[in-house]
Design goal:
single chain, mainly beta, seven-stranded mixed β-sheet, 11 strands
Length: 124
């Protein structure tokens, strides 16, 4: 069974940090670009970040640039999203997704596999 599983979400105070993980089972992530998306209550899902299969290219939404860092460890079949300086506006369900095709990184329809999501809540 091919699946992606996110972990690392939780409740954190403003200014705090979290590291999300996205681990694949049933397939190897080596040849896939991995994207992180999020959906806040009452809002559409949006792209947060993406890393190419070779790690050569990394993309970030303007709202997270300088605060979030995406990385991957192909030996562990896992992609990470380090989130620092979190604010309440970052509260959302965070999803990871894998795509084999090229194209604009934030286009959801280009992604082949999706995780179930992990909740991130930033609140004092």
């Amino acid at each position: 069974q091919l699946q992606l599983v996110e972990s690392g979400g939780g409740l954190v105070q403003p200014g705090g940090s979290l590291r999300l993980s996205c681990t694949a089972s049933g397939f190897t992530l080596d040849y896939y670009a991995i994207g992180w998306f999020r959906q806040a209550p009452g809002k559409e899902r949006e792209g947060v970040s993406c890393i190419s299969s070779s790690e050569a290219n990394k993309y970030y939404a303007d709202s997270v640039k300088g605060r979030f860092t995406i990385s991957r460890d192909n030996a562990k079949n896992t992609v990470y999203l380090q989130m620092n300086s979190l604010s309440p506006e970052d509260t959302a369900v965070y999803y990871c997704a894998a795509r084999y095709r090229g194209g604009e990184w934030s286009v959801e329809s280009l992604y082949d596999y999706w995780g179930q999501g992990t909740q991130v809540t930033v609140s004092s």
